[in-house]
Amino acid sequence: MHGDMKNKAYRIKIFRVIQFLMITSVFLLTACEEDDSQEYPDPTINLVSDPDYISSDAIVAVGQTFKIGIHAEWNEQNRLTNFIAFQNGERYIDLGIYKEEYDREIEITKGLEDTDEWEFMIRDYAGQWSSVSLTITKNPNIEYGEILEFDDIRLGAQNSAEYGSFFSFGSGNVYTLQEAFSNQEIVNLVYYYDGFDNFEENIIASPGANISGAFTGDYGISNWTTLYTIRYSAETLDVSADDFDSASNDSILLAHAFAFESGKRKAKYLEEGYIFSFVTEDNRAGMFKVESVDGTDAGNIVVDIKVQK
Prior knowledge:
Blueprint: H1 2-37, E1 44-47, E2 58-60, E3 65-73, E4 80-87, E5 90-99, E6 101-109, E7 115-124, E8 129-138, E9 147-156, E10 166-167, E11 174-175, H2 177-182, E12 189-194, E13 201-205, E14 230-232, H3 241-246, H4 251-255, E15 275-280, E16 285-294, E17 300-308
Parallel strand pairs: 2-8
Antiparallel strand pairs: 1-3, 3-6, 4-5, 4-7, 7-8, 9-17, 10-11, 10-12, 12-13, 14-15, 15-16, 16-17
């Protein structure tokens, strides 16, 4: 009898413990659900009002460069994860971030469109977002800019014994690797053949394109202290050779310009007749046309180049 009472008391204690755990679990689940369903404000984004920046609708001349300043802040709950800029509904910049505050200066060259509708969006970890916008209208008094033109520039691949692989817009000269090392402050373009890494074949890039394996040794690009960077269009352009050849100002260059950040580091798989656009790190628009390609890592390429002064 005494044993039965002890067992009954034990069972009661176990039941109370289980009951307590169940009540606690329900409370915790309810609290989590309430926390998950709690609404937080959207992140904030603003155009910086400063004499150096455009922060409201404006009229800008074709080819003129202007700056826009962005400041964004989190909602003190979810960090900022994406900054996106749209030009006339198309993505111009799309960057991943992970910050509580985000500041960015965007440098833009006015293109040929009559009106550019710009929208700048910030998104956070929870998918909440905010945006600001402005309109840039083309000044009807168009004055196109002058360009530099370089015809029949022959560049050798990395193992060419006849031709240098490096070119400078400033001097208009082609340089060997050793010569380029001594003139790295003015070297803009690099040509090489990739049959050893990603097998991307004939490539035009720039010293800042993270090139590995092609130019090594004491004068190799990894030993340079100045690495000029150019970004290229993702694909060859739908532009005729005649239109390229006849261009005497920067109108065609501006028509195919893009945000430096959205460009590619290399123009790859080059073939005769291909035309690519590019944007330099100092925001100059340019294009090049492939005249001929001959050989592989000891071969050469001939290109015509046009770039804003």
